[in-house]
Design goal:
The structure holds 2 protein chains of 2 kinds.
Chain A lengths: L1 H27 L5 H6 L5 H10 L6 H13 L13 H7 L1 H28 L4 H15 L2 H15 L14 H35 L2 H8 L4 H38 L5 H10 L3 H29 L6
Helix pairs in contact in A: 1-4, 1-13, 5-13, 6-7, 6-9, 6-11, 7-9, 8-9, 8-11, 9-11, 11-12, 11-13, 12-13
Chain B lengths: L9 H9 L7 H23 L31 H37 L1 H16 L2 H12 L3 H27 L3 H8 L4 H37 L11 H8 L8 H26 L3 H10 L3
Classes of the chains: A mainly alpha, B mainly alpha.
Amino acid sequence: MARYALERFALVIPTIFGMITIAFFMLRALPGDPATAILGEFATPQALAELRRSLHLDEPLLTQFYHFISGILTGDFGRSAITRQSAISEVMSVIWPSMALAFSSVMVAIAIGVPVGVISAVKQGTWVDYCLIILTISGISFPVFWIGLVAIVLFAHTIPLFPAVGSGVPGNYLSYVHALVLPAIVLGMGGAAYIARLTRSSMLEVLNQDYILVARAMGIRESRVLYLYAMRSALPAIMSVIGVTFAIAIGNSILVEVVFSRPGLGSLIIKATFSRDYQLLQVGLLVLSISVVLVNFFIDLLYPLVDPRLRR
Amino acid sequence: MNDGILISSVPSLWRRWRNSPYTKHAGFFLGTCIAILFVLVAIIGPFLAPHDPLATDLRNVLQSPSSEYLLGTDRFGRDVASRLLWGARASLFVALTVGSLSLLFGILLGTLAGFIGGWTDRFLLALINILLAFPGFLLALAFVAIRGSTLINVILAVTLAYTPRVAIVMRAVVLSIKPRQFIEASYAVGAPTTTMIWKHVLPNCLPPVIVVATVSAAFAILAEAGLSFLGLGVQPPTPTWGNVITEGRPFLLTHPWISISAGACIAIVVTGLNLLGDGVRDTLDPFLRIQTATKMFK
C-alpha cells in the first residue's frame, strides 16, 4: 500500500512540474510584449523598460524560467502587477469558497449520478431508461452558466428559496451553506450526467456476468444483488470518473462564480484577465490545475480499497 | 478491436457505414438529423433572417415576441431571431474548425507517438498527459486571456484544450493495430512507412477518433459560449449564441426569451452532436466506451 502510494506520488511531481513549465511558456513565449500589454499602448519607454526589468523580461527566456522555478521552490510566486501583493497569498485568500463550491458540486454529482445510472441500467431498454438517457445527455449539453441563470430566475426570484448572488453573510456559517446550495446543484448537474452515463455502462457490464445470475438464482434480494454485489465491481470505474467530474467542476466553477457573483478563485482569475494582471492569472490557473492533479492523486489512493487486485 | 472493424480503404469504410446498424440506432438518427439541420440553418439561415442582425432600432427596444419579431428584440432593438440565425454560423465555424483541427493534430501526434514509439512516444505521451491534467475550459480561458479575444484565438484555444483528447485515443488505437499481422505483412513486402500509415493504419483508426472529434466539436460550441459569456469570446456586435445569452442577462426577469432561446439553440445542437458521437461509439468496441468516457471529458 505504501509502495503503491509512493509510485502514484512519483507521477504527481513531474506532472505538476510540466504544468508549471507549460503555464510559464504559454505566458512568455507567445508573441506580444507583456509590458506593453500591462501598461497599454501609450506608456512611456522609460516606464516600459522599468517594468520589463522588474518582471525580468529583459533577460533570456531560459534565465527567466530559472528565476520562475527557483521562485516557486522558495515559495515566491511573484507579485500581482496591479495590487503589488504577493500573488500566492491573494490566490489563497479566495481559494476556500471555490474549493467548497467544487467539492460540494462533486457530492451533488455523486448523489444524483450514481442512483440515476443504476436505475437506468436496471431498467435497460424501457422508457424509464430512455428518459434517463435523454436527461443525462442534455445534462452535459446545456451551457452551465445558462442553467445557472435559469436557476436564479426560478429558485431565487419566482420561488425565493435561495439567495441569487453572493456567498452568504460573513461569520454566519448557516448562510454560507444556504448560499452554496443553488450554485453547487447547478455546477453538479454536468458531473451528475457523466457519472450516471458511466455508472449505467459499467453496471450493465457487471449485471451480465455469471455471478450476478447465480446470486439471483439463489433468490438473494434484488437490492442486495444490485448495491452489494454488482456495485462493488462497478465501483472502480465509477471512481475513475469522479476525478474527471472534479476537473469539469473546476473549469466550470469560473462560469458559475460569475453567474452567482460569488467571491472565489474564478472571479479572481476573470478580474486578473481584464486588468491584464498576468502574474495573478498564471498563479490562479496553476493553483486550480494543481488542485485537480492532487484530487486525482487522492482518488488513486482510494483504488486499492475498492479493487483488491491493486493491493498485491 | 475485433476483426470485423478492420477496413482497408476509405471507400469501403463508407460502404460499411451505409450497411451498418448505425442507421437503426435512434440516438444516432436523431443526432444526425439535428446536425444536418444545424448545418443547413448556418448556411441558409442568414438569407432567411427577417432583419439585419446588426441594425439597431431604438424605437423598438426589448419588444416581446410578435409576428414582426419572432423572438422579440434586445436592448438595442435588434431582432433576436435574426441574431440567432446569424449566430449559428459562428457556432458552426467554431465547431467545424475545432473538430477538424483537433482531429488533424490529434491524429498526427497520436500516430507519431504510437507508431514510432521509444523516446518520441515517451516525450509525446508526457506532453499529452500534462495537457490533459489541465481542466480543458481553464486552458482555453488562459490562452484567450493572454492572446486576446478574437475568433481565431478562441478556435486555437479550444483546439489546444481538446487535441490531447483525440491524440490519446489515437495513440491507443495505433498501439493496438501496430502488432497486427497485416502490418507485419506490409513490412515484409517492403511498403514505405508513409504508405503503411496512410493505407493500413489510418483507415482502421478513424472511427473511434472521429467519435472523439465529434464530441470535441460539441464542446467547442459550449466553450465558445462560455468564453463569450465571460466577455472573452467573439466580441459584440458580431452575433454568437454565447453573447446573445450575455446580452439578455440583465433582462432575464423581464424579457427571459432572449437568453432562453439562445441557450436552447446551444443545448439542441450540442445534444445532437453528443447523440451522434454516442451512436457511433455504441456500435464500436466496448473498451472504447469506457476509455473515451473517462479520458475525453475534462
